[in-house]
Amino acid sequence: MKIYTKTGDRGQTDLLGGTRVDKDDIRVDVYGTLDEVNSFIGLLRTKLNSDHKWQNKLHTIQIELMNTMSHLATPQDKKDQSKLPLPKEMATFCEKWIDELEGGLSSKSEYFILPGGNEISALCHVVRSQLRSAERKTISLHKIHPVDKSILFFINRLSDLFFSLSRSAMEEAGLTEERWKAFLYGRA
Fold first, then answer.
1. Does pTM surpass 0.90?
2. Residue 162 resides in a domain
3. Does residue 157 lie in a domain region?
4. Considering its fold, how many domains does the chain have in total?
5. d(C-alpha 119, C-alpha 85), whole Å
6. What is the CATH number of the domain that holds 67?
7. Class of residue 137 by CB neighbours under 10 A (exposed 0-12, middle 13-18, buried 19+)
8. Cα–Cα distance between 139 and 4 in angstroms, integer?
9. Which residue, among 97, 87, 65, has the nearest Cα to 163 in the 3D structure?
10. Is the pLDDT of residue 18 over 50?
11. pLDDT at 188 over 50
12. CA torsion, points 33, 38, 44, 45, in degrees to nearest 10?
């Protein structure tokens, strides 16, 4: 099978199930943004040692992102739920990892942090910000074509997770976070 098909030369592509849409269709935009996220997670993994404690969990996230993209790329009338796994447990997976990471840090997260510090932390912030973009686009899609809540929860928790991973990478490297402003929400 050839990599190129020439079927997209006029600005259209196929969703899973064969429906033709423009390449700027909201579905394509959402799963394209998640594809970017997944690629940067792959880059992050190459920067970590192969036996790094994050490797297996990041691999799990990449697999679940692929499943999520497949789900988002399939129109509702073409879905066979038994063949399209949803990230039903992934919000909880992320929450547990966040709690573990935050519990191991010397300070609470009470400030907005300037992205950077070291390469690992900066890459985590790139992924976090791409996930926020994916989340906004997923909400736009959800208004037109309802998206399973587990996908919304997963994407939201992932951005929180990558914030915590960035903080953990900074502390592990012995670096001080560059704080911008204190969080104001949640205060009386």
1. no
2. yes
3. yes
4. 1
5. 33
6. 1.20.1200.10
7. buried
8. 32
9. 97
10. yes
11. no
12. 180
